[in-house]
Design goal:
This protein has 3 helices and 5 strands; from the N terminus they run ααβββββα. It is an alpha+beta fold. The strands form 2 sheets. The protein has a 3-stranded antiparallel beta sheet. Strands 3-4 form a two-stranded antiparallel sheet. A hairpin with a 3-residue loop joins β1 and β2.
């Protein structure tokens, strides 16, 4: 599924225009990126959580020349699926649907 497919699906399900759905999808993505950039964790119950992980610096090798190269430490985004998502993907029953706007 591409971002365009996701926008179309949101538009169809909530009966909004494509432009309104695009704003919603973009806002969600921007919020996740902004939170990760500031070091926060993003948790979406029943779906999974996004966080960052630190990779240590290391000495790598240029595959073309064989020359050693220093690879600096970096922060990478990481997604951990929820148990419910893993179960559904592995053929289990989908979780019961909750009405939109219902918070636990």
């Amino acid at each position: 599924m591409t971002k365009a497919d996701l926008i179309e699906e949101v538009s169809r399900v909530v009966e909004l225009t494509r432009k309104e759905s695009e704003v919603i999808v973009e806002s969600i993505f921007e919020s996740v990126v902004r939170s990760l950039k500031s070091g926060d964790k993003v948790e979406i119950r029943g779906f999974g959580s996004f966080r960052t992980r630190e990779r240590k610096g290391r000495v790598g090798r240029n595959p073309k020349s064989g020359e050693k190269v220093d690879v600096p430490p970096k922060t990478i985004p990481f997604f951990k699926p929820s148990k419910e998502l893993r179960d559904v993907v592995n053929g289990g029953p989908p979780p019961p649907a909750r009405p939109v706007g219902q918070d636990d």
